[in-house]
């Protein structure tokens, strides 16, 4: 980044909207508002709700957690039986 020619480098923040980006690319700004898809972190929530893969991952995480808890309960029970 330090060696990039200034006319080929755009340091850009999405909060700036279309202006700096379109100026850098040498094009007119679109007439539609700049998309702020993930402004409040909604992209993650939307992905979690709509994605079949994410739903499956959630289910698998829940199953693995239940198995781990069951194993811990069994180990504690065995220790109490042996020591008690």
Automatic annotation (TrEMBL):
Pfam families, sorted: Sulfotransfer_4
Transmembrane helix in keyword set: yes
Domain of life: Eukaryota
Regions crossing the membrane: 61-83
Alphabetic keyword roster: Membrane, Transmembrane, Transmembrane helix
UniProt protein name: Uncharacterized protein
Annotated organism of origin: Clavelina lepadiformis
């Amino acid at each position: 980044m330090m060696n990039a020619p200034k006319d080929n480098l755009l340091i850009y923040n999405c909060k700036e909207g279309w202006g700096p980006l379109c100026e850098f690319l040498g094009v007119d700004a679109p007439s539609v508002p700049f998309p702020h898809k993930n402004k409040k972190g909604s992209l993650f929530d939307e992905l979690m709700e709509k994605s079949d893969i994410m739903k499956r991952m959630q289910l698998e995480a829940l199953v693995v957690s239940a198995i781990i808890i069951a194993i811990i309960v069994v180990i504690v029970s065995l220790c109490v039986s042996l020591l008690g």
